[in-house]
Amino acid sequence: MTTLIWDFDGTLVDSYEAIGEALKVTYAHYDLDFNEEWVMSFIIKESVKALLYKVAKEEDLDFAELSTFFKKEQEARDHMINPMPHMAEVLKQTKQAGVSHFVYTHKGITANDVLERLGVRQYFTEVVTSANGFARKPEPEAINYLLEKYHLDKAETYYVGDRRIDVEAAENAGVKSINLGQPNSKINQKIADLSEIMALLKA
């Protein structure tokens, strides 16, 4: 293991409370019923974009307008985002062990601001966000960009995430996966806590 490419929401940071609040406000703005349990389950299994697309189609709303409204509400709640347990210490220890770190997230450029606020931005060589314009996961375009730009060894590179789409993105890019929510497989190692990455590093 020489490189870790990290997902952001639900992996490095616990942002689901902020996302949930932003979605609640978005639903209220468009006078829609908000079933919090169903909505949160859906976005964890799929994605916020998939949810908004589904809502726009079912309610005959403009998807771009709906997405823009949600994004504004989400970014207004970035202060609610907290680090996942052991995040900082795992980044520090793996960096000291020679591991390179990158971020690839669907979140906007404010992901950098959150990482700065949490005191960990310095651990990442590059943070790739939606502002870079790459095709969304599970397309491997952004991971391939990092592999090529930094001449990363695929066999020693892992994409760390929390959803099925993260495992699929890793597989499509030809790298391995570490995931907080998906079962063990040929390419994926399931972990319950980020601290388990240290044991994987030493294995």
From TrEMBL:
One of its GO terms (biological process) is DNA repair. One of its GO terms (molecular function) is phosphoglycolate phosphatase activity. NCBIfam families: HAD-SF-IA-v1, HAD-SF-IA-v3. Transmembrane segments: none annotated. One of its GO terms (cellular component) is cytosol. Pfam families: HAD_2. This is Haloacid dehalogenase superfamily, subfamily IA, variant 3 with third motif having DD or ED/haloacid dehalogenase superfamily, subfamily IA, variant 1 with third motif having Dx(3-4)D or Dx(3-4)E.
